[in-house]
Amino acid sequence: MYKIGIIGDGYTAADLLRLLAGHDEMEVVSILSTENVGRRVDNLYPQLTGFTDLVCQESNLDIIKNECDAVFLALPHGLSVAMAIELLPAGIRCVDLGADFRLKDARLYEKYYDKTHEAPQMLEKAVYGLPELYRDKIRVTDLVANPGCFPTGAILPLAPLLAAQLLEPEGIIVDSKTGVTGAGRTLRESSHFCEVNEGIHAYGVGTHRHGPEIAQELSFAAGRPVEMIFTPHLVPMNRGILTTAYARLQPGVSAAAVREVLEGKYREEKFVQVLPPGLMPHTKWVYGSNMVQIGIYTDETSGRVILVSALDNLTKGASGQAIQNLNIMLGISESKSLNFPGVHP
Question: Which residues are catalytic?
Fold first, then answer.
């Protein structure tokens, strides 16, 4: 039984505990906090009553080094680097759910996160934790940069088509709608009920931090720079992301070729489903699950493709994918504790 630690006590930490409650090869033995030291986790999150008796401990990394084989860093950006620097030499495998190791260019990190990266030499060491693209690298690393929720929904449908050179690498548009839990549990005016309910609005237009992350991974897939724009929108629902991506086909590419590439790429994948022709995904179909569903519409006349994906931002967009990554890192069955459908209706 692997002993696991969690640093952080927000929504992603709660979802880690929910999902790991059914894991028979990992046991969460410690959770570190700053704001809730001394409080039981099931008092913070009553849905966990009967599934954990952990008490939030102070953020002392000696606790992790003495008790754990691996740790989830469920923290805001800027806090994980120093912890990884100390934990990795102690033999602790790290999955960072924050943004500190996602971008390979430290200058982009500084531009979008307003912070100088403390250890730019570690950016190449970290493996981007999208198992469907980087499984072999994840298997042999001790540091995974868990992808952002928006990038997961954008990269999975687009990357295989760019890698197969079916899409033009210019003019890609990514439009995403997200639930309010993406903003985290910290109280802020923009996520108050009366600010969000019965409305929808774009935010971070042209400046959202997940934009360069999406562009980075799409460029890696294409083997050359990809030009894309990304716009997120906040919608009045708790959890879920619906992403619609628009792209131009390379000359002569057929609808059948688009479907063949995506179905071929994901046919054996447990957590990515390419839906049948004419069916588009719904966030309620993947609610609470580690699934991503992808719908395809190809217009050969205009030479355009529309790709729609749905995922749960807290599960495949964060905690579920983090567990998927750690399963791989520890040599455990990849779907362990994640093999269940979404909750609908």
Answer: 149
Q: Domains (ranges, CATH) in the chain?
A: 2-146+316-329 (3.40.50.720), 150-313 (3.30.360.10)
Pairing assessment for the beta strands 143-145 and 93-96 based on DSSP bridges: parallel
Q: What is the pairing mode between strands 172-178 and 201-202?
A: unpaired
- Give residue 181's pLDDT: 83
Is the sign of the CA dihedral 100, 103, 106, 108 positive or negative?
Answer: negative
Q: Per-residue confidence at 195, pLDDT binned at 50, 70, 90?
A: confident
pTM over 0.70: yes
* Residues in CB range of 3: below 8 A, 6 or more apart: 27, 29, 67, 68, 69
Q: Which of 17, 76, 8, 74 is nearest to 47 (CA)?
A: 17
Question: At how many degrees (to 10) do helices 210-222 and 106-113 cross?
Answer: 150
Rounded CA-CA distance 101/118 in Å is 11
> Is the pLDDT reported for residue 187 higher than 90?
no
The β-bridge partners of 177 are 233, 242
**Amino acid identity at 145:** A
* Token output for 120: 């730019």
CA 253 to chain centre: 30
